[in-house]
Design goal:
By secondary structure, the protein is mostly helical. The protein is globular. Strand 1 (about 50-55) and strand 2 form a beta hairpin. The protein has a two-stranded antiparallel ribbon. It starts with 8 loop residues before the first helix and ends with a helix. Helix content is about 40%, strand content about 5%.
């Protein structure tokens, strides 16, 4: 498939801002696939031509699209931006099995495929949870090891089996 699309980057940015009027330009850049600086230039072009109004809301910008403004090309002169956005929003609402386009970098990372297979053991996990990850050589990989008590024969059972304190002090046991 070729690298061309039906809309220019200006159209893509306008569609993104129509979907989310509080979107960050960084997020719009990720969705469109261009740099944040290019999105800033496009937003300035759209604002200068009257397609977009920008207002400040706290530390964020809010974008309002002028739906009455006619499209720029002579072939679409009878169509307004609002009609185009309505058409595209109907197409979006009619999709049933479409993937959600990530609107933030965090969502983009969340949707990305993992670089490590899920069944791969990671050293950090082993160090942070040794009781869960340690395995016995007789068991399958991944089963937790059960610490077994020493056999009863190795443990002294009565006072006669216990070494005398004097024997310990003299080192006669070793």
């Amino acid at each position: 498939m070729g690298d061309w699309t039906f809309f220019s980057n200006h159209g893509h940015v306008l569609v993104c801002l129509a979907r989310d009027s509080d979107a960050r330009l960084r997020d719009v850049a990720v969705q469109v696939g261009i740099t944040e600086r290019a999105v800033q230039k496009i937003v300035r072009d759209l604002q200068d031509e009257g397609y977009l109004e920008i207002s400040k809301r706290g530390r964020r910008n809010r974008y309002r699209i002028n739906n009455r403004k006619a499209l720029r090309h002579s072939l679409q002169a009878g169509c307004t931006v609002g009609q185009l956005m309505n058409l595209l929003s109907k197409a979006d609402s009619g999709k049933t099995a479409s993937k959600k386009v990530p609107s933030t970098p965090e969502e983009l990372v969340h949707q990305a495929k993992p670089l490590v297979r899920p069944d791969t053991r990671i050293d950090n996990q082993i160090e942070s949870r040794p009781e869960k990850m340690a395995t016995d050589s007789s068991r399958d990989e991944g089963e937790p090891r059960q610490d077994k008590p020493e056999p009863k024969s190795a443990q002294p059972q009565d006072a006669a089996d216990k070494p005398a304190d004097s024997e310990l002090e003299q080192g006669q046991l070793f």
